[in-house]
Here is the input.
Amino acid sequence: MNFKNELLKILSDITNLGQENFLLEIPPENVNADFALPCFKLAKIFKKAPNLIALQIAQKISDVEFIAQVNVEGAYINFVLNKEIFAREIISQVLEKKDDFFKSDIGNGKNIVLDYSSPNIAKPFHVGHLRSTVIGNALYNIFSCLGYKCVSVNHLGDWGTQFGKLITAYKNWGNESDVKNKEIKELMKLYVKFHDEVQKNPALNDVARSWFVKMQDGDEQALKLWKWFNDISMEEFQKVYDRLGIKFDYYTGESFYNDKMQAVVDELKEKDLLVESDGAMIVDLENYKMPPCLILRRDGGTLYPTRDIAAAIYRKEKFDFDKCIYVTALDQKLHFEQWFKVVELMGYDWAKNLVHVPFGLVSLDSGKLSTRSGHVVLMEDLLDEAVAKTKQIINEKNFELENKDEIANIVGIGAVVFNDLYNSRIKDVTFSWDKILNFDGETGPYIQYTYVRTCSVLKKAGKTNKNEINYEILTDEASMNIIKLINLFAEKIIDAAEKFEPYIVSRHLMNIAHAFNKFYHDNYILNAPEQVKNARLNLTLCVNLVLKFGLELIGLKVTDVM
Here is the structure.
């Protein structure tokens, strides 16, 4: 039984209105009710005061088995459910369906392309790339949970003038043995060196641009160096993705669209959208209160919008997406608005299905990160530190624990990921080790530890009897709080997808963990009488299932000991 849907059917039958007219809400904690119906919207339909409408509707609701009480407060109708029936329906379904209880088929037959992570080749995978990677991965899992066919694309920054800069730096100050020995760190050093030297000699920018034009023209030497830098970088990136447990369906970087960009330029010309401006070719967006969208440089080189438009057209043709989602930093907002508008002006009605999902900055106490200045924190170093600090905590709390290295990896890396996903993505994220590794705070380790607690209780108890549960036992406040939160989880997943906000899932998992820990402290489980013990064990099993499913949904692993 879906209680919300059943209530909507009753209200629809009573009033002869469609269910879409009723906006059932979860009332605030100080209201003793499970659902509330505000009647303000109905005033226009019935041409009566909302409080009168509420009274009339409430009077028409006859005895319904699963409704214990209906009362009116002003313009609100409050519904109190029969606790025993509610507990039976939710717990029995979770135990029977397990993960499927939280899944949906609303996305069946629809395709979603998600473009995320997208680090730049020949630059280190630093902490600044973390947000796109983990937010994108969580959204991929969330949409997949709702039945969408998802395609994850890592749109690597493997083309552009930066490679001309790197080749110039390598030719002037680099050597083969240093790059082979130090790999990505040496490439980063050369990139920073270029930006230091160009301050003294601006002509280096012209040299760099000429090397990129050579790449575009298929110059053998330029492409050989480019491929070498590319291979070094991909090997480095893969180490990080493996540690985060993240995979991609496609690694199609900017270079993949190299032979597809001329068609975009030609189409823009044919549709009279391309105009010359100071030797460059642009799409004028003044009528839309935006700066011009640059398509070709004066030297004929392509730019990010050219490649992004080519990629979008290719993805629509290949995947026929219902949505193509780009998870990038907030400071790229204008870039996406510009080329989305260009796609619309080209006459593609699917331009409305291009979605930019922006996020705030990530920083450590030392401030904002910049590749050009060399002030970066490498992701591998960050993850290593998280694991090391977690292992230190484990040694202090449970020195005899087996598989400490594996558990420290799960908890430490999970802490970093959860910290990123616990607040709205648009907020900036600052790393505080004391905060993110706090086993008693609003953290990943806290939820993981709660999961371990459920595992421990279930292991000590042995088997539970799922067929003879006395649900009346689970009508106390602490038990009902858990059951209500579990029931809401499927809706929270849908809400997270609609708003592109994984934190909605993360926060709800935290609420479930808090509710279970209160239940655990307030109630005997293993030492309770047999019927009570069995009921509470089955509720514990439900929490165990939902925490594991939810943590994995946002990209964290679980361990059954800690």
